[in-house]
Amino acid sequence: MGDHPDSVTVSLPLDSEGFLRRECPTCEREFKWSHSPEGEGVPASDSGYFCPYCAVQSQPGSWFTKAQAEYITAAGAHEFLGPALEDMRRSFEGINRPDSMIKVSLKTSVPDTPEPLSEDDDMRQVEFECHPTEPVKVLDGWERNVHCLICGEPASGAAG
User: Fold this and answer.
1) pLDDT at 106
2) CA separation for the pair 118, 107 (Å, rounded)
3) Can you tell me the distance from the alpha carbon of 62 to that of 48, in angstroms, rounded to the nearest whole number?
4) Do residues 125 and 119 make contact, with C-beta atoms less than 8 angstroms apart?
5) Quick check: 1 pLDDT over 50?
6) Do 89 and 108 contact (CB within 8 A), yes or no?
7) Is the pLDDT of residue 104 over 80?
8) Which range, 4-18, 69-83, 142-156, has the best average confidence (pLDDT)?
9) In sequence order, what DSSP letters do the residues of 11-64 get, joined into one string?
10) Which runs of E-coded beta strand occur in 55-117?
11) Are 37 and 20 in contact (CB under 8 A)?
12) What is the pTM of this model?
């Protein structure tokens, strides 16, 4: 088989203030957290981040929105599956010889490059005394407590 990348870099869009849309794997509500370059910002505990809505803690890799997960899957299919199918097609064609009784044909369809995601400037920002460098954005109509991503404590002022 041919050379294929071991990984694919996928960029997800930020809003104009540098916030990345996320979705709680428990309550499935969307929010945004402030995006920090790798290695900067406050790291999550070994147990993960807390949802600002339901305060349930989950691992860092479990916060993708449905649209982000679909985009990542499609980008991976385009980068990995497409070249692998092409290699397989060429291998099968190599079996076909003029004097052979066996003829093999394989039609492949390389997955399209997914359309890039976009990000709206929506939601209201909430800051925390406990972790002031880790603000979140929550739904405009959210009236209940907003919890810190890092420690799960509610923002001061009850409803953030």
Assistant:
1) 67
2) 34
3) 9
4) no
5) no
6) yes
7) no
8) 142-156
9) ---B-TTSEEEEE-TTT--EEEEE---TT-SPPPBTTBEEPTTT--EE-GGG--
10) 57-58
11) no
12) 0.77
